[in-house]
Write a structure and sequence with these properties.
Layout: H1 2-5, H2 9-35, H3 40-68, H4 70-87, H5 94-122, H6 128-146, H7 159-170, H8 172-176, H9 193-199, H10 201-227, H11 232-245, H12 250-259, H13 262-285, H14 293-323, H15 330-359, H16 363-385, H17 414-417, H18 430-438, H19 441-447
Helix pairs in contact: 2-6, 2-7, 2-10, 3-4, 3-5, 3-10, 3-15, 3-19, 4-5, 4-7, 6-11, 9-10, 10-11, 10-14, 10-15, 10-16, 11-14, 12-13, 12-14, 13-14, 13-16, 15-16, 18-19
GO cellular component, one term: plasma membrane
Domain Major facilitator superfamily (MFS) profile: 199-448
GO molecular function: transmembrane transporter activity
Length: 448
């Protein structure tokens, strides 16, 4: 394990610190919006700005990285994200906060591109799977732990926003001090979303639905928790239970779907997500004191089950789509699947907040329950009209966080261990990349 960790230690430390800050900021904003007693629709629009920024950053941030190199881009984006986080403490205006969320999402997309391409550069045939697993675990654990940092200071004050800013600034230190030269950023071929829908409609619908469900949770989950009566500790525990619960079924469901038709597994996930969400709706409507032992235990248990099921929908849907895609198109196609997820994630908080205004806080999980039904019905229909791909032609499920298409270049290739081979540009000569990081921006842009 140490042999695999050492070459990527600085990057994983940066990722962990970065997600501590991002995870704390997301829930902190939700708690403050709930305290401001704004209409849920306004809060949903504010929080959806982050996912809009992710979409824009996934498209545009690559040009920043190509122009100035990875280290400078990482430093600039982390500093901008840090400043945006701190700016929340100066003006409590929904429009201003919404713009800051767009900036945060844009910066996060660029930071993840830098990190994932670096991890890909350092991963070897022997360590690739371990590195990918450590990356996924780091993101989930950091976000889960970050929830409990809410209790380190008053949520309405300056201190927690300053703490987020400190964490985001600290995240760039391991990268800034690394001696590892910046890698090449693969430039995948274009792969239209319309073509992707024609190849695997179930995969696209699954990724889109995952975006709606998880975007709604991350966007207005803290509002749900506060508005059903949870105190600050309960809110932190609820958010953490769902995030950490996301690790529970990643491997078991991936293992099952590699040995059987993936679509029944997706149907199982859709049904489970719908049933658990319906139970959360019922619990939210029961007018119980959720800060007492019995109700809070039930809420946290259901939350962990929700996280365990909902977090597997994206990787299972992506794996189903990848089964029908040529190996050389895998990376650009992954960008299309992530775009489908991101579009859903932009819409999720907005739609959920509208329903919450109509039926109260449980409207969040009412929406997610309906999403589970849609996934189940659509996948069942497709199961009747299309034969499954032969099992020997299925690629193993790669359980990974929904980050950027660059992460897909970390997946094993066929000539390495019998899995699929991806086609992307070879990295440049390390000496040239080192020079690029030290040259002025124009020269760096030509070499990066």
């Amino acid at each position: 394990m140490w042999h695999s960790f050492r070459p990527v230690a600085s990057l994983l430390i940066s990722v962990s610190i970065m997600f501590l800050g991002q995870g704390l900021l997301n829930t902190l904003l939700g708690v403050n919006l709930a305290a401001a007693d704004l209409p849920s629709t306004i809060s949903g629009l504010v929080m959806s700005g982050y996912f809009l920024g992710l979409v824009l950053g996934s498209i545009l941030a690559v040009h920043v990285i190509h122009r100035v190199g990875h280290i400078r881009a990482f430093a600039a984006l982390a500093s901008t994200f840090s400043a945006a986080a701190l700016a929340h403490a100066f003006f409590s205006d929904p429009i201003f906060w919404g713009l800051l969320r767009v900036i945060a999402g844009f910066c996060m997309a660029g930071l993840l591109m830098c990190t994932e391409s670096w991890l890909n550069e350092k991963a070897t045939r022997e360590t690739r799977g371990t590195v990918l697993s450590m990356y996924m675990i780091a993101t989930y654990l950091s976000q889960g732990v970050a929830q409990f940092m809410l209790e380190l200071g008053p949520t309405a004050g300056y201190m927690l926003f300053a703490l987020v800013s400190i964490l985001l600034s600290a995240a760039l230190v391991p990268v800034a001090l690394t001696k590892v030269p910046g890698p090449a950023l693969p430039t995948p071929r274009r792969f239209g979303l319309r073509k992707l829908i024609q190849i695997s409609p179930t995969g696209v619908v699954g990724c889109l639905s995952s975006g709606v469900a998880m975007g709604a949770f991350y966007g207005v989950g803290p509002l749900f928790a506060r508005n059903v009566g949870l105190d600050l500790s309960g809110t932190a525990a609820f958010m953490s239970a769902i995030i950490l619960g996301g690790l529970i079924l990643q491997w078991p469901l991936g293992w099952v779907s590699d040995r059987f038709d993936r679509r029944p597994v997706i149907i199982f996930v859709g049904i489970s997500m719908s049933v658990v969400s319906a139970a959360l709706v019922a619990l939210g409507l029961a007018n119980l004191d959720l800060n007492t032992l019995g109700p809070i235990a039930a809420l946290l248990g259901l939350g962990a089950l929700f996280g365990a099921t909902a977090s597997t929908l994206y990787p299972l849907s992506a794996a189903l789509a990848n089964d029908w895609i040529d190996p050389q198109d895998m990376v650009p196609a992954s960008g299309g699947l992530l775009l489908a997820y991101s579009v859903g994630a932009v819409a999720g908080p907005v739609v959920a907040s509208v329903i919450m205004d109509l039926m109260g806080p449980p409207g969040l999980f009412a929406l997610i329950s309906v999403v589970g039904v849609v996934v189940t019905v659509f996948t069942f229909i497709r199961l009747q009209v299309r034969e499954s791909i032969p099992l020997e032609e299925q690629a193993p499920v790669q359980m990974m966080p929904r980050m950027t298409a660059v992460a897909y270049t970390m997946l094993p290739s066929e000539d390495e261990d019998g899995q699929l081979c991806f086609d992307f540009d070879a990295p440049p000569d390390p000496a040239n990349e080192t020079d690029a990081e030290q040259d002025p921006p124009d020269a760096a842009g030509q070499a990066a």
